[in-house]
């Protein structure tokens, strides 16, 4: 059974299906059962790290609350498209749910600095962003636009 939830990202309204139970799907991929337990623990840890309630994450990812609880508990085998929506709702790439590594290889190369900067930028004012952009452009020797 599918129901829909309206979500409104910046000036646009999209309708996504809310996943609330086992449904056959062409997108289903069989993964080993232990993977779902690890993925559930990772979702739980990332959600807590972002200080999101289960209800908030369920709404952002357009999944049912009880479904999310079961996915976090490793009791439900979520489809990859659903896991991708959950990951995106937390600002993470899908691979992060399947990896014990906190950083991708390119992030490790940069020691995660770029990622930390990206996490800070949304909290800055427009004026502060212009200052940072100017400094960054001077550091790399590019003229400002």
Q: Please, could you describe this protein's structure?
A:
It is a single chain. With 145 residues, this protein is mostly helical. It has 7 helices and 2 strands, in the order E-E-H-H-H-H-H-H-H. Strands 1-2 form a two-stranded antiparallel sheet. Helix 2 packs across helix 3 (65-72) and helix 2 (54-61) packs across helix 4.
The Rg value, from CA coordinates, equals 19 Å
Output the strand order for the largest sheet: 1-2
Number of domains: 2
Distance from N terminus to C terminus (CA atoms, Å) equals 51 Å
Query: Which fold name fills CATH's third level, the topology of the largest domain?
Result: 434 Repressor (Amino-terminal Domain)
Approximate strand percentage: 5-15%
**CATH architecture descriptor name of the largest domain:** Orthogonal Bundle
Largest sheet: 2 strands, antiparallel
Helix content: 40-55%
Supply the CATH superfamily name of the largest domain. Answer: lambda repressor-like DNA-binding domains
Shape: elongated
Average pLDDT reading: 76
Q: Helical element count?
A: 7
Please provide the count of β strands: 2
Structural class: mainly alpha
């Amino acid at each position: 059974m599918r129901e829909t939830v309206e979500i409104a990202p910046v000036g646009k309204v999209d309708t996504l299906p809310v996943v609330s139970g086992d449904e056959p799907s062409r997108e289903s991929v069989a993964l080993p059962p232990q993977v779902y337990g690890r993925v559930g623990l990772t979702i739980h840890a990332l959600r807590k790290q972002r200080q999101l309630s289960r209800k908030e994450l369920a709404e952002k990812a357009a999944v049912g609350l009880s479904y999310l609880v079961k996915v976090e508990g490793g009791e439900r085998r979520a489809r990859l498209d659903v896991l991708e929506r959950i990951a995106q709702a937390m600002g993470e790439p899908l691979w992060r749910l399947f990896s014990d590594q906190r950083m991708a290889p390119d992030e490790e190369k940069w020691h995660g600095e770029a990622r930390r900067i990206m996490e800070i930028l949304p909290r800055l004012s427009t004026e502060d962003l212009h200052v940072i952009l100017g400094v960054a452009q001077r550091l790399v020797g590019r003229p400002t636009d």
